[in-house]
Every structure is written in C-alpha cells, then in structure tokens.
Amino acid sequence: MSLSVTKLHPLFAARVEGIDIARGFSDTDFAELRAAFEEHSVIVLPGQTLDDGQQIAFSERFGPLEMMLPHAGNNLNPSHISRMYNSETDGAIIPPEDRRMIYLKANRIWHTDSSFKETPSLCSLLYAYEVPPEGGETEFASMRAAYDALDAETKAQIEGKVALHHAARTRDMVAPGLVTPERRATPPVRHAMVRTNPVNGRKALYTGGHAGKIEGMDEDESEALLVRLLNHTTQPDFVYAHKWTVGDIVIWDNRAVLHRGRSWNDAVHKRTLHRTTVAGDGPTV
Ligand code: OGA
Ligand code: MN
Questions:
Q1: Whose CA is closest to atom 5 on ligand 1?
Q2: Whole-prediction pTM value?
Q3: Nearest residue CA, atom 2 of ligand 1?
Q4: Ligand 1 pocket test: which of 100, 104, 122, 138 has the largest number of ligand atoms within 8 Å of its C-beta?
Q5: How far is CA 50 from CA 40, 114, 172, 258, in A?
C-alpha cells in the first residue's frame, strides 16, 4: 500500500493521501485509489492544485465523462465541467435572485447525479477553488448503510422494483420555470431501486430527489414509500458532512451515496467548485 487511507465516518467515506494529481501517479496508485472508491464510496483527496484540463484528465481515469446539459447554471453552454459559483469573474457577488443562483438551489435537495439519465453517473468529482469560512458543506448519505438497515419486509417489497426518475422533479421543488419545455417533455427514466456493486456485491438503496414514482404501485403508496425511504437513507447516522478546504477534490460514488449542498452566507462569502461527472456503464434495468 503506498497510499494512506483514513476513514472519515464509521460507515463510509475516507481521506486518501499520497496522490498528487498534478504531478502524476502510477497505475498501481490509481488501482489502489479505485479500490478505495469501490470500498468507501466517498474519497477526499486534499491539497490538490488543478486546472479544468487536469481535472478532466484525472476524471477520465474513472471512465468517459458525461456532457452536461445546457441549463441556466451553465449559461446554456454545455461542457465537461459544471461550475458552482456565486461570484462573477470580476469578483462581484451574484445576487440571490439571479437565475444561475436559483438553479444551483436544486443541489440542496438530496439526489444522486444524473439519475434522470438512462445511464446514470458512476461518480462525480468536485474540486474546491474558493470556500466560505462557515457553511457550504456537501453532505453525503450512504445508500448502502440505508439498504443494510432496512427491515426484511421492506427489502422484499423493493426487490426487483423500478422507480421513475426525472430532473424536473427536483427543479420544480426549487422554483417554477427552471426546466425548459423540451427537457420537461422528455420521458422519465426507469431505474432499479436496489443496485449491487459489481466489485464487492454490496447492495444500495438507489433513491433520491429525482425519483418520483415506483412502477406497479398506486400513486399514494408509491409516494409514501419514496418519502419513507428518503428519510431513512438520510438519517443523521448515515450522513457524512464534508467541510471544504481549498484544494480538496472529493470523488463520490453516485451508485452508492446521495448528496446535497448546504447553505452559507452567500451574500458575503464566495464558494467556487468545479465538477466533472463520469458516466456509468449502462442502464440499471
Ligand atoms: C454537485 C452538487 C453540491 C454542492 O456538484 O453535483 O450537487 O455542495 N453539489 O455544491
Ligand atoms: Mn449533484
């Protein structure tokens, strides 16, 4: 072992030291990092110095990247980098009523990235350029811990079940009109409610804010179960809150954790993070 792995929570999440991404690292180091990712679901690599190109190249080690969709958060310019920021390039704080800021609020709802795509994301990588002195944490909830803690009856109830996911669901919780009519018109996608990790066989309860309906259940029953499962998954014991330091890159397994961003005093303090998103290897059903 040339990397050092320190657990950040009793159930998941670890800090990994011994990799300087900009300097480069061996294939053996990457294999260790990848194994740590499969095991711990959330990996924090502190003290990195990266630009977008280096972040993209590093992220591609995990697999092909997703292209972001054009939306208000990226000024309708899709790219491999999704930028979370609350200041203009000249340093001025962007007012909260700006459409870009409203769009970012969808990140404050528990979700897993790209579960509205037929092939959802394998993992996301978020790199910190500027962070507020307080607040602005990113929280992660272990969908594996959540699955393991379900009672046998609920496990049986969701085994083999499919939930329908759509991006409009979380956007509509923030404000009307955030979703373009074209996007709203795209059909929801079907995802397995229980996903099994191909390396270690661990099961995860695949849920989150984009999930709106369980197939084959009546509307009320489905809604009640989804709410119960989301509350169960995000109970405090299953949550790791990452307090950002400039230079951190955090890699999370979208198959195994939910995440959400927390608020901060955004009228005063800047927060700038860049995200790359690695595509999964296919549909979940
Ligand atoms: C994301 C996300 C939350 C945050 O980048 O996918 O949800 O803390 N971010 O900014
Ligand atoms: Mn996200």
A1: 275
A2: 0.96
A3: 107
A4: 138
A5: 24, 24, 34, 25
Pairing type for strands 138-142 and 189-192 reads unpaired
Average of per-residue pLDDT across 185-202: 97
- The domain segmentation of the chain, as residue ranges, is 4-279
Per-position DSSP letters for 98-120, written without gaps between them: SHHHHHHGGGGS-B-TTTTSSS-
**Helix, strand, or coil here: 134?**
coil
Distance CA 2, CA 193 (A): 37
CA 3 to ligand 1 centroid distance, Å: 26
CATH architecture of 4-279: 4-Layer Sandwich (3.60)
Q: Which residues line ligand 1 (CB under 6 A)?
A: 84, 107, 113, 124, 126, 138, 259, 261, 273, 275
48-92 per-position pLDDT tens digit: 999 999 999 999 999 999 987 766 666 666 789 999 999 999 999
